[in-house]
Amino acid sequence: MNIKILGNGGFYNEGLPYNAMAIDGHVLVETPPDILQSLMQQGMSPAQMDTVFISHIHGDHCFGFPFFFFNWLYWGDSGSHYNRGTRLVVIGPEGFAGHLRELMRLAIPPEHPYLRDFDQRVQIVEIDEDDVIAVKGNLWFGFRRTAHPLPTFSLIAGERGQDEALPSSPEYLEKALFIYSSDTSMFEGVRVLLDSGAKLILCDTNGERENGVHMSPQELLAAAQGLSGAGIGRLRGIHMSRRMKRVGELQFVQPGEEFNLR
Predict the structure, then answer these.
(1) How confident is the model over 59-68, as pLDDT tens digits?
(2) How far, in Å, CA of 115 to CA of 127, rounded?
(3) 3-class secondary-structure state, position 42
(4) What pLDDT, in 10s, does the model give residues 103-144?
(5) pTM exceeds 0.90 for this model
(6) Which of 108, 166, 233, 262 would suit a FRET pair with 247, their CA atoms being 20 to 30 Å apart?
(7) Half-sphere exposure of 217 (CA within 13 A, CB side)
(8) Do the Cβ atoms of 66 and 103 come closer than 8 Å?
């Protein structure tokens, strides 16, 4: 599994590209306002994505979706997804389909055929705590709720063989290769993720100090101490407020950074 960082900034940030990443070059995680610029800067196109995961409906995670989808649909002229009739899978919390459609309506006049394209070409998958689903490319995704004002989910990702069954919810944390913990304040669920078998764990660190909405780097470091298997080397901060490379033992991901997990 390959994880490529497209952006690392949070809702409040001092000019960082907003938090987003790609999995194996075909799954996009988050669609922030600057997602097209972040993709292009990393030599990627929206058209190469077949699946999108959006952790929650705050604007720094989804406001780029109407522009991403428009470019995804028409990229490549005669070879575009529009001409090929492709469908895009979009995964997110219960009820977020209506929110995305409202964003589309605000972005373009309601009589535009683009809204019909959204209805016809987007397959919405709404998820809840401990769901495990199959994703293209022999991937599987699991989900756990975070402590955030809106329904928000961490992403737990792994690989399966051609004939391999999906992991059950009790075992998916141990079989995970990658975990992305979206916006959250510190709570016991963060420690559960840190104690998993994942090779790489990215955690929200948008709080400069304890604020009850986002974790601070210091809170994350304290949570990682003394947990079995929670080596600091596989833990990284993301969703930052300012440019940082390290706080103590905790490193922060940078745009363009890649991780190959096996």
Answers:
(1) 999 999 999 9
(2) 23
(3) coil
(4) 999 998 888 888 999 999 999 999 999 899 999 999 999 999
(5) yes
(6) 262
(7) 19
(8) yes
